[in-house]
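Pilot study result, target chain (117 residues):
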Amino acid sequence: MADILIIKLSALGDLVQADGAIRDIRNFHHDDHLTVMTTPPYRSYMERCPWVDAVLIDPRAPRYHFLEMLSLRSKLRRKFDRVYDLQQVGRTRFYYRYLFPRSWWLGDAKGCEVCLK
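Predicted structure:
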């Protein structure tokens, strides 16, 4: 069983629109463990999502808050086999470079395995 992470941090409307993509990822990875990373306001929404096994919260602390970045990194102790970056913003590109440097990555970060740019 693989550990899959889906990153979707933003507004409720964006999460609703991402439902189809999350469902497709679940269908492709039907036997794997799917975790969604989102922000605190959307925790309960994503916890009720039938396609998701777990929810990881990103407090969206500024990147210069080194201790909070280390705290987030410690929450990500297990290596995710695949990361689907559905957010594709500077913050998630930072995560690709500094928090998930060894994971297979789909997004728009320079150097990722499947670049959507």
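One observation from the pilot: The two ends are 29 Å apart (CA to CA). A full batch analysis is planned for the follow-on phase.
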